[in-house]
Amino acid sequence: MRTGKLRWTFHTIPRPGEAGHETWPAEAWRTAGGANAWAGMVVDEKRGIVFAPTGSTAYDFFGGDRLGNNLYANSLIALDANTGKRLWHFQAVHHDIWDRDFPSPPVLLTVRHNGKMVDAVAQATKQGFLFVFDRVTGKPLFPIEERPVPASDVPGEKAAPTQPFALKPEPFARQLLTEDMLTTRTPEARAAVLSRFREMRSAGLFVPFALDKQTVVFPGFDGGAEWGGQAVDPSGVIYINGTDVPYYSGLRPNKTTSATPLGERIYVEQCSGCHGVDRQGTPPQMPTVVGVQFRRERPQVDALIQSGTGRMPGFPQLSAEERASVIDYLMGASRMGDSDLHSLIGDMRGLPYLFSNYNRFNDPDGYPAVKPPWGTLSAIDLNTGEYRWRVPLGEYPALVAQGVLGTGSENYGGPLVTRSGLVIIAATVFDRKMRAFDSRNGALLWQTELPYTGLATPITYMIDGRQYVLIATSGGRDPKGPKGSAYVAFSLPSR
Fold first, then answer.
1. 155: domain range?
2. What span, in angstroms and rounded, lies between the C-alpha atoms of 28 and 314?
3. In order along the chain (495 residues), what is the average pLDDT of each group of 10 residues?
């Protein structure tokens, strides 16, 4: 960048006359949101290609006001870095109504394919698919099949009739929850989750949410893959960690018809997708904001809204008056009853239905309702599309004390692979450990307990000929763990 002058713009929600505009209602470009490259982009410097993975479009869970496939949401877009011209694209979810956007940047690697060396780009998904393409042409290196998927029975909604399924590599997370997969941790736990499961719909990926019944989302809203990204080595092997726990959710009618105070309007439009329309959240990932007036002062809440913290983005677009109205609402409102839960987001966007929240499907003791593994680390040879190994990643200390080992756990943050053949990763929420695996076979070579959870991707660097690994740690996601944050560095043995 030399002058700061805008060089080009690519509209991820196409405007009239642009390719892809026909996949939206004619005026949707004026009102639709999302389709942003929030996960981060990568650049092929030699060819001058930008690879941008895009998010889902708003509103995430009901698309009656955006009928069509909605390009270029949920898409990997290859753009000419000099001109912004689209070279090719791949849409992983058509007309997304599940918040199945790409969770992490793609990775660039070189593989041997059909006897030739091919520069490839690989994109992981929340669904547990790994899509692999020729960087230049966008041609898939492994088969992708458009399969029929269920229609929506929600009035006004029209789900896409087909969705793309990667046939190879095999998914790195399970995608269909059945009765025989439910937990057997204790007879009581199994009985409890079995009873709840039989009241839900569970038919695999791309089942539209319903009004009359909760729908299983597996892998859950957090993936599959998450924002930590993946690591690759020069031989064409990708190392990818995944979470393997179920969620459930649904839709409900928006019954609000009268005006609502400004603070509640803004809260519901901007904040309720994570904290819930009842403000209860889904702790610890999505904390409750009920009773925030007893935990924080107004200036602290104002700063959080404006600048964000941790996983929460900032909202600098809100004026001081708008932020004050939200704080008034949060600090002055008592917990809403069921008759008051339906907010103005439907009125503001003209939507008749609201999302019923990110609900984890856990047993009564708080463990995932499915049999382990609940988190994994895998090595996939992208020369062949075959797995080299897969191991559980993470444990629950309370279960370890009972002799239950190797369950895996949900994990956030990605792996690092070294030239010496180490795959180094923290990421696991509850055991606060950092581990080093043998890249050849997945054998655990080393582990240590961190002061706080290492929910980040480690980095490596050299000083005076010695190699170091550093991880950022924090205590935000485990309600039972220590609170705080720290950077922790380790030195690798000298040869």
1. 21-251
2. 25
3. 90 97 96 92 98 93 96 98 98 98 97 97 98 98 98 97 98 98 97 98 97 97 94 98 97 70 77 80 79 82 84 79 87 46 41 87 97 98 98 97 96 95 96 97 97 96 95 86 94 80
Question: Does 376 map to a domain?
Answer: no
Domain edge (last residue) among 251, 270, 288: 251
For residue 42, being part of any structural domain is answered with yes
10 falls within a domain: no
pTM: 0.86
Task: Please indicate, yes or no, whether residues 189 and 73 belong to a single structural domain of this protein.
Answer: yes
> Which pLDDT score, from 0 to 100, does residue 291 have?
82
Domain co-membership, 173 together with 308: no
Which of 327, 350, 373 marks a domain boundary? 350
Question: 331 with 264, same domain?
Answer: yes
Q: What is the CATH number of the domain that holds 265?
A: 1.10.760.10
Q: Which CATH number covers residue 148?
A: 2.140.10.10
- The answer on 239 and 264 residing in a single domain is no
The predicted structure's pLDDT at residue 130: 98
Query: What pLDDT is recorded for position 343?
Result: 37
Q: What is the pLDDT of residue 1?
A: 62
Domain count, the chain: 3
* pLDDT of 39: 95
Please report, for residues 256, 327, 354, the alpha-carbon distance to residue 357 in angstroms, rounded to integers and kept in the order given.
18, 22, 9
Map the chain to HEC letters: CCCCCCCCCCCCCCCCCCCCHHHCCCCHHHHCEECCCCCCCEEECCCCEEEEECCCEECCCCCCCCCCCCCCCCEEEEEECCCCCEEEEEECCCCCCCCCCCCCCCEEEEEEECCEEEEEEEEECCCCCEEEEECCCCCECCCEEEEECCCCCCCCCCCCCEEEEECCCCCCCCCCCCHHHECCCCHHHHHHHHHHHCCCECCCCCCCCCCCCCEEECCECCECCCCCCCEECCCCEEEEEEECCCEEECEEECCCCCCCCHHHHHHHHHCHHHHCCCCCCECCCECCCCCHHHCCCHHHHHHHHHHCECCECCCCCCCHHHHHHHHHHHHHCCCCCHHHCCCCHHHHHCCCEEECCCEECECCCCCECECCCCEEEEEEECCCCEEEEEEECCCCHHHHHCCCCCCCCCECCCCEECCCCEEEECCECCCCEEEEEECCCCCEEEEEECCCECCCCCEEEEECCEEEEEEEEECCCCCCCCCCEEEEEEECCCC
